[in-house]
Amino acid sequence: MSLKVFLIENNQGGTRLFAEQLKDSFLWVYKLDFAETLIAAAEVLHQKTFCIILLDIDMHDENLKMIPVVILATSRAEEDIVKSYKHHANCYISKPLDLNQFMKVVKSIEDFRFSIVKLSSKT
Hints:
- The chain is α/β, with parallel strands linked by helices.
- Helix content is 38%, strand content 22%.
- A five-stranded parallel beta sheet has the order 2-1-3-4-5, with helices on both faces.
- Helix 3 (78-86) links the parallel strand 4 (69-73) and strand 5 (91-94).
- It is globular, with a radius of gyration of 14 Å.
Protein backbone atom coordinates (compact mmCIF):
# COMPACT_ATOMS: atom_id res chain seq x y z
CA MET A 1 0.00 0.00 0.00
CA SER A 2 1.22 3.47 -0.86
CA LEU A 3 0.31 6.44 1.35
CA LYS A 4 -0.34 9.67 -0.52
CA VAL A 5 1.30 12.75 0.99
CA PHE A 6 0.87 16.26 -0.40
CA LEU A 7 3.49 18.86 0.50
CA ILE A 8 2.73 22.50 -0.22
CA GLU A 9 6.03 24.27 0.22
CA ASN A 10 7.47 27.32 -1.50
CA ASN A 11 11.05 26.40 -0.60
CA GLN A 12 12.58 23.83 -2.97
CA GLY A 13 15.24 22.91 -0.42
CA GLY A 14 12.57 22.05 2.13
CA THR A 15 10.73 19.95 -0.44
CA ARG A 16 13.88 17.99 -1.32
CA LEU A 17 14.75 17.43 2.32
CA PHE A 18 11.26 16.17 3.15
CA ALA A 19 11.21 13.90 0.08
CA GLU A 20 14.56 12.38 1.07
CA GLN A 21 13.32 11.67 4.57
CA LEU A 22 10.19 9.93 3.26
CA LYS A 23 12.27 7.91 0.82
CA ASP A 24 14.38 6.60 3.71
CA SER A 25 11.33 5.55 5.73
CA PHE A 26 11.25 1.93 6.79
CA LEU A 27 7.56 1.74 7.69
CA TRP A 28 5.66 2.89 4.62
CA VAL A 29 5.89 3.42 0.89
CA TYR A 30 5.00 6.98 0.02
CA LYS A 31 3.66 8.73 -3.03
CA LEU A 32 4.70 12.34 -2.58
CA ASP A 33 3.14 15.12 -4.61
CA PHE A 34 4.07 18.72 -4.04
CA ALA A 35 3.19 22.22 -5.13
CA GLU A 36 4.90 25.55 -4.59
CA THR A 37 1.77 27.73 -4.62
CA LEU A 38 -1.85 27.47 -3.49
CA ILE A 39 -2.98 27.88 -7.09
CA ALA A 40 -0.92 24.87 -8.15
CA ALA A 41 -2.08 22.99 -5.04
CA ALA A 42 -5.74 23.66 -5.83
CA GLU A 43 -5.31 22.08 -9.26
CA VAL A 44 -3.77 18.95 -7.75
CA LEU A 45 -6.39 18.73 -4.98
CA HIS A 46 -9.18 18.71 -7.57
CA GLN A 47 -7.62 15.67 -9.24
CA LYS A 48 -6.26 13.56 -6.37
CA THR A 49 -6.91 12.60 -2.76
CA PHE A 50 -4.28 12.44 -0.03
CA CYS A 51 -3.75 10.88 3.39
CA ILE A 52 -2.16 14.04 4.77
CA ILE A 53 -1.26 17.55 3.66
CA LEU A 54 1.79 19.37 4.96
CA LEU A 55 2.01 23.06 4.23
CA ASP A 56 3.62 26.34 5.16
CA ILE A 57 1.58 28.66 7.39
CA ASP A 58 1.18 31.27 4.65
CA MET A 59 -0.44 28.70 2.39
CA HIS A 60 -3.26 27.48 4.63
CA ASP A 61 -6.69 27.42 2.99
CA GLU A 62 -10.19 26.96 4.44
CA ASN A 63 -11.03 24.45 1.69
CA LEU A 64 -8.62 21.92 3.20
CA LYS A 65 -10.67 21.38 6.39
CA MET A 66 -11.55 17.71 5.82
CA ILE A 67 -7.98 16.67 5.03
CA PRO A 68 -5.56 16.50 7.98
CA VAL A 69 -3.37 19.58 7.76
CA VAL A 70 -0.02 19.88 9.49
CA ILE A 71 1.54 23.34 9.44
CA LEU A 72 5.32 23.13 9.01
CA ALA A 73 6.76 26.59 9.53
CA THR A 74 10.03 28.20 10.49
CA SER A 75 8.11 30.69 12.62
CA ARG A 76 7.79 30.12 16.35
CA ALA A 77 5.69 33.24 16.84
CA GLU A 78 2.57 32.81 18.97
CA GLU A 79 0.45 34.81 16.51
CA ASP A 80 1.34 32.38 13.71
CA ILE A 81 0.43 29.40 15.87
CA VAL A 82 -2.91 30.99 16.81
CA LYS A 83 -3.56 31.90 13.16
CA SER A 84 -2.99 28.29 12.11
CA TYR A 85 -5.46 26.88 14.59
CA LYS A 86 -8.03 29.58 13.78
CA HIS A 87 -7.80 28.36 10.19
CA HIS A 88 -8.46 24.79 11.36
CA ALA A 89 -4.98 23.33 11.10
CA ASN A 90 -4.72 20.01 12.91
CA CYS A 91 -1.31 20.81 14.35
CA TYR A 92 1.54 23.30 14.14
CA ILE A 93 5.16 22.16 13.98
CA SER A 94 8.15 24.48 13.95
CA LYS A 95 10.76 23.38 11.43
CA PRO A 96 14.04 22.66 13.19
CA LEU A 97 17.09 24.25 11.60
CA ASP A 98 19.26 21.21 12.35
CA LEU A 99 19.05 18.41 9.73
CA ASN A 100 18.97 15.59 12.29
CA GLN A 101 16.23 17.31 14.25
CA PHE A 102 14.26 17.87 11.04
CA MET A 103 14.48 14.16 10.25
CA LYS A 104 13.20 13.35 13.75
CA VAL A 105 10.24 15.69 13.21
CA VAL A 106 9.35 14.06 9.89
CA LYS A 107 9.59 10.62 11.51
CA SER A 108 7.35 11.71 14.37
CA ILE A 109 4.73 13.01 11.90
CA GLU A 110 4.89 9.67 10.14
CA ASP A 111 4.54 7.67 13.36
CA PHE A 112 1.67 9.79 14.63
CA ARG A 113 -0.34 10.13 11.43
CA PHE A 114 0.02 6.63 10.05
CA SER A 115 0.36 4.49 13.17
CA ILE A 116 -1.69 6.20 15.87
CA VAL A 117 -4.36 8.52 14.44
CA LYS A 118 -7.71 7.20 13.24
CA LEU A 119 -9.45 9.37 10.65
CA SER A 120 -12.81 9.27 8.97
CA SER A 121 -12.89 7.37 5.69
CA LYS A 122 -14.30 10.57 4.15
CA THR A 123 -10.94 12.40 4.38
